[in-house]
Amino acid sequence: MFADVAGSTKLYESAGDAVAMDAIERCLGLMRHATEVAGGRVVKTIGDEIMALFPTPDAATGAAAEMQHAIDQLLPVASTKLGLRVGFHFGPVMQRDGDVFGDTVNVASRLVEQAVRGQIITSSETMAMLGPVFRAWTRRLYSIQIKGKTSEVELCEVIWSQRADTTAISSHRMAAKAAPVVLRLRYRDLERKLRRNPDAITIGREQTPHGLVVEDHNASRLHCTIERRQDRFVLIDHSSNGSFVTVEGDPEVMLRREEFTLRKHGWIAFGQPRSGASEVVEFFCD
C-alpha cells in the first residue's frame, strides 16, 4: 500500500516549513497507527507518503478506511485542508534489508497515482479477494496500462464514506431457499429484524446502509457484520479489539477477525467483555 498526503505542497507554501512539517508528521503518525492496528507494517516513509505491508486484502482495506477517516477529521492548517490518496494491490513481494520490491509494489505505486484526494484505489484482482463485507463497498472504475504488464489493470474504488455525492455500493446475492428464521437485534430502544432483505447488517460506530450504529468508543467504525446464510445468522468480526458474544447459558466467546453462528438468545459486546460494557446489543433467533 502507498498512502500519500494531498495538499502538502500548498501547505508548505502558505504556512512555512515548520508548521507544514508538524502537520505532515501528525498525518504520518495517524497513518502508521492505522497500519499497525490492522496488523500491518510501515516499510518506510517517503516525504509525505508511507509504504506499508499487510497480511490480507481485508486488513489493507480496513486500514485505508481508518486512515481516510482520521485525516478527514483533522482541522485545516493555515486554511489548508489536508487529504489522503491511497492505492494498494495484493500479491507476492521480495523483502530485503527491511525494504520490499517486485511487481506488486510497482502496481500499488501506480494505483496511488490514479487516486484523487479522499479516494482509495485498488485493482479488480485485489477486490476479488476481499471478504463479502468489504467487497460490497467497492465499485469498478476503468482500466489503465502499466509499464511491464502485458494486459491492462482494472481499477476499483473502495467507498469509505457516505457523502451526498456518493452512491452506496451494496452486494447482491442470489436468493436461497431458507427456513422462516428471524433474527431480532435490540439496542437501547431500537429493534431491528433480519429476514431476507436486507440479508446482512453491519454494526459499528459508522452509519452505513442497513447498519446499526452503537455509541461505544470501544467499537470500530465497521466493527462486525451479521449475515444470513440460508437458515443461519453468522456474526463476522472485523474489529481490532474483538467482539464478545454470549449465548444464554454458555460461556462468553471472544472473536477477533473470526466468525460465530448466533443461536437462541444472547448478547454482543464490543471491544471488551459484556461484564464491563456499557453498550450491548441483545439478539434473539426466533
Write the layout of secondary structure elements.
Layout: E1 2-6, H1 8-15, H2 17-37, E2 41-46, E3 49-53, H3 57-72, E4 83-88, E5 94-96, E6 99-101, H4 103-114, E7 119-123, H5 124-127, H6 132-135, E8 138-144, E9 153-158, E10 183-187, E11 190-194, E12 200-204, E13 211-213, E14 224-229, E15 232-237, E16 243-247, E17 253-255, E18 259-262, E19 265-270, E20 280-285
Parallel strand pairs: 4-7, 12-13
Antiparallel strand pairs: 1-3, 1-4, 2-3, 5-6, 7-9, 8-9, 10-11, 10-20, 12-14, 14-15, 15-18, 16-17, 16-19, 19-20
Helix pairs in contact: 1-2, 2-3
What does this structure look like?
By secondary structure, the protein is α+β, with helices and mostly antiparallel strands. The protein folds into two domains: 2-158, Nucleotide cyclase, GGDEF domain (Alpha-Beta Plaits), CATH 3.30.70; 183-285, Tumour Suppressor Smad4 (Sandwich). The protein is 23% helix and 35% strand. It contains six helices and 20 strands. The protein has helices spanning 8-15, 17-37, 57-72, 103-114, 124-127, 132-135, and strands at 2-6, 41-46, 49-53, 83-88, 94-96, 99-101, 119-123, 138-144, 153-158, 183-187, 190-194, 200-204, 211-213, 224-229, 232-237, 243-247, 253-255, 259-262, 265-270, 280-285. The chain has a seven-stranded mixed beta sheet, sandwiched between helices. Strands 11-10-20-19-16-17 form a six-stranded antiparallel beta sheet, with no helix packed on it. The chain has a five-stranded mixed beta sheet with strand order 13-12-14-15-18, with no helix packed on it. Strand 5 (94-96) and strand 6 (99-101) form a beta hairpin. Helix 1 runs antiparallel to helix 2 and helix 2 (17-37) packs antiparallel against helix 3 (57-72). Residues 163-179 have low confidence and may be disordered.
